[in-house]
Amino acid sequence: MIQLRLRSDCDGALSPFVTRIANGEPRCAEDAVLAWQEAGVLGFRTGYADFRLRDVTPADIAGDVLLIDPRRQVAHRLIRAASPHNTFLITEQCDQLCLMCSQPPKPHHEDMFGHFRTAARLAPPGAQIGLSGGEPLLHKRGLFDFIDAAFAERDDLGFHILTNGQHFEREDLPWLRKHRERLLWGVPIYSDNAATHDEIVGKPGAFAELSEKLSLLGLAGAALELRTVVLKQNASGLPGLADFITRHLPFAATWAIMQMERIGYGRMNWTRCFFDSSTNFADLGAAIDLMRARRQSVALYNFPLCTVPPAYRDLAARSISDWKQKYLPGCESCSLRARCAGFFEWYRDEDGFMEIQPQ
Ligand code: SF4
Predict the structure, then answer these.
(1) Is the same domain home to 285 and 143?
(2) Are residues 41 and 147 in the same domain?
(3) Which cofactor does it need (predicted)?
(4) Is residue 358 part of a domain?
(5) Which phi and psi angles does 77 have, rounded to 5°?
(6) Which residues, including other chains, have CB under 8 Å from residue 72's CB and lie 6 or more apart?
(7) What is the span of the domain harbouring residue 163?
(8) Protein residues with CB under 6 Å of any ligand 1 atom
């Protein structure tokens, strides 16, 4: 697994700061140049601080944007220059309690917008950065201000924001319209049955709220990616949800049907929730057929390719972020591996898909 946190040494009296590992000559005060190296330790110098990193090579981190935390003596890799999978964790707070949540909510919030703004300014050209939580829109004012500032400094960036969609208001419409070309909103919907959706997200009334707020996104002309994790609780309802989406949410840019991640509440509730689509693809297939017949975009995220019938494999994206992706020993010889999403690092064979078959 690729490490997103590196061991770092720095003057513990310093405040946390953002820096970029210079790939060549430094271009700004935040750029850190390699001053020395010896057995497993790299020494860096910026315009305002020195720090050391352990257990990495200069090539591993060239161009990366790091948040150095002197008190904890760690460096967080906010942006890996060579990866398309970079996400800022806006908050760990959330007002939902989803059965399969991979990042269970925490009560405290640490405002990181200042660091994120610097990191966005230092991002590689054309970067598309994920913003996630928790629920980022619980801190809507700070989030909107951060995005405004980032776009003012960089006209080539875009953000993909994951939100439960509960917190948009009519007065947000001008702001949503202003940035609609550069923001993609990823919003989960688990069923067209309100009780099922509310049960999955652990919040009574969530579906009614979501329906209203999705309409606002439609009014704004915002780019919308609907997201549905397939679970035992909603699998049989997927054709009905497809029908709902095509009739009520035709403005959605795409509908991503996703497999579950076995971490956080997802691990705790795995047996209760995991739906083995390798042995039963009928409802998924029916939902996809309906979407295709009505010419609305649909995609499959986090599905190992051999678990998907051949007729639907063109929809399966290599969606698992590189830092938490793995393959099984049997995948070594598989001809599909280069275009297969593989598995989450924390996937377990013993309670996972029944039918993994190298092709
Ligand atoms: S055997 Fe492995 S690489 Fe091949 S399709 Fe299945 S999961 Fe993917």
Answers:
(1) yes
(2) no
(3) [4Fe-4S] cluster
(4) no
(5) -85, 90
(6) none
(7) 87-351
(8) 304-306, 327-328, 330-331, 334, 336-337, 340, 342, 356, 358-359
